[in-house]
Write a structure and sequence with these properties.
Elements: E1 16-17, E2 24-25, H1 27-44, E3 53-57, H2 62-77, E4 83-90, H3 97-111, E5 115-119, H4 120-124, H5 128-135, H6 140-159, E6 163-165, H7 170-183, H8 186-189, E7 196-197, E8 204-206, H9 214-224, H10 241-254, H11 258-268, H12 273-276, E9 283-284, E10 291-292, H13 298-307, H14 317-325
Parallel strand pairs: 3-4, 3-6, 4-5, 6-8
Antiparallel strand pairs: 1-2, 7-8, 9-10
Domain tRNA(Ile)-lysidine/2-thiocytidine synthase N-terminal: 54-232
Protein name: Cytoplasmic tRNA 2-thiolation protein 1
Subcellular location: Cytoplasm
Length: 354
């Protein structure tokens, strides 16, 4: 049987079958349609403005490496007028993050972007290795998730950027929808599909890969021969997200459109006004200045628990009450530096070039 020709250009030999559409296409057409779909997402969502300083959250993994490559390509092709930076967070995980950061340093040279690395040790005085030695592996992802989110904002502020982009893909977002449904987390379910988020006290953050399948990101990295780190975090196998991921893969095997269908379902959810009224109002942490729904933000509470030998204090309401019952924090308690947003750069939105 003669090899199939590309369904798009109808001249080159088809090299792959797109998981998202089932089309059999050549390598060059795949690169073009993948990049064009991301460009359309950016334009339709009006993610950037000319002159924006944009930090790419770079872990060295496939998603962030492909994101760096695609953002540079689209910025040059469509003249977005963005200043691009790489921003990496060093959680302090021996044999994992230290190796992946070497990949990020190579990406810095390959894509000719400035690189900023901010470590948990520098910001919080704790590494994830030290945290896991205190809390074990049951709740370690809670610490890492809270600390990492704030570290990204603080690293971006140091770079004086307007915007952070992360490599979260369609699979990640569909998993989050499923997790929030299974946990009954109405507050997060109402906003987890948003492509762009920004509070009064945080830096604008978006997901250009919101509709990009993980399998296609892997294919893009493979056929482009991109340099990325593929080892999974040594502390993540027991994470709750893993159960949602396994379930989603089973759904995708039966129905490839399940990923996008779940995202669209999440987008269609509406939280009743009476439910919204019960949600806590966002305020500013009295200790570090970061956004919070309590007097102390989650990161400050977790850090205080670690410092006072009550590592689980910030994870549950019961633990928090136990911490409060111990009395005021000592004067020599290690705290997070006060957070200040960089000045914005208001300009007009990027328009479509097609």
């Amino acid at each position: 049987m003669a090899p199939r020709t590309c369904a798009l250009c109808e001249s080159a030999k088809a090299m792959l079958k797109r998981p998202k559409t089932g089309q059999q296409i050549c390598r060059d057409c795949f690169f073009y349609v993948f990049e064009t779909e991301v460009h359309n997402t950016i334009v339709q969502s009006k993610l950037f403005q000319p002159g924006d300083r944009v930090a790419i959250g770079a872990s060295g993994g496939k998603d962030s490496t492909v994101l760096a490559c695609v953002m540079k390509t689209l910025n040059d092709r469509y003249n977005y007028g963005l200043d691009l930076f790489l921003l990496s967070i060093d959680e302090g995980i021996t044999g994992y993050r230290d190796d992946s950061l070497e990949t990020v340093k190579r990406n810095q040279q390959q894509y000719e972007m400035p690189l900023k690395i901010l470590s948990y040790d520098e910001l919080y005085g704790w590494t994830m290795d030290a945290i896991v030695s205190q809390v074990g592996r049951k709740n370690n992802c809670t610490f890492c998730g809270v600390f990492r989110r704030q570290a990204l904002d603080r690293g971006a502020a140091m770079l004086h950027v307007d915007h952070i982009v992360t490599g979260h893909n369609a699979d990640d977002i569909a998993e989050t929808v499923l997790m929030n449904i299974m946990r009954g987390d109405i507050a997060r379910l109402g906003r987890c599909t948003a492509i762009c988020t920004q509070g009064e006290d945080t830096i604008r953050r978006s997901k250009p890969f919101k509709y990009a399948y993980e399998k296609e990101i892997v294919m893009y990295a493979y056929f482009k021969k991109l340099d990325y780190f593929s080892t999974e975090c040594i502390y993540s196998p027991d994470a709750y997200r893993g159960h949602a991921r396994v379930f989603l893969k089973e759904l995708e095997a039966a129905r490839p459109s399940a990923i996008i269908d779940i995202i669209h379902s999440g987008e269609a959810f509406e939280v009743r006004e009476e439910v919204k009224a019960t949600q806590r109002v966002q305020q500013t942490c009295i200790r570090c200045g970061y956004m919070s729904s309590n007097d102390l933000c989650k990161a400050c509470t977790l850090l205080e628990g670690l410092e006072r030998g009550m590592a689980s204090a910030g994870i549950t309401d019961r633990g928090r009450k136990q911490l409060e019952s111990q009395g005021p924090a000592p004067d020599n308690l290690r705290t997070i530096p006060f957070f200040k947003l960089p000045l914005g750069n208001p300009t007009i939105a990027i328009e479509s070039t097609s």
